[in-house]
Hints:
3 helices; 16% strand; Nucleotidyltransferase, domain 5; single chain; alpha/beta; 5-stranded mixed beta sheet
Amino acid sequence: MAFKPQGESSEAMSEINVTPLVDVMLVLVIILLVTAPLVTQSVHMKLPETVETTENINKEPFQLGIDAKNQITLNKTPYATFADLETALKAELAKNPEMEVHLHADESVVYGKVAELMATVQHAGIVKMAFVTMPE
C-alpha cells in the first residue's frame, strides 16, 4: 500500500500503481519480438520435378439412395435386391479401390432397411461412406 507524504493525512491511497504492470508487459513484448523470427525459420531447397505417374482416377463419389418405396439406386441405376447392389459395388471397387459412397435415405424409410443397405456396402469392401442430409 502506498501512503501520502507526511504533510497530508495518513490515510491509505486507493489508487493502483500500474507502473510495474506496464514494465512487465513491455518486457514480454520485447521477448516476443526477439523470439518470433527464430520460430519461423525455414530451409529453402529445390525439389526435383517429375511427371504425373498415376492415372486420373474418378474422384466423384457414388450416389447410393433408397427412397420411400424402398427402391435402391446407385448413380440413378435401380437395383432390385441387395445382392445385385453388392455385386455392382464390388465391380466398381475393383476399378477404383479409393471408392467413396454417399448415402441418401428418405426420412420415411425404416431404419432396418438403411442398416441393411449400410451392411451391403460394408460387405462389398467399401470403407468410405458418408450420409447426406438436407438442411431444414
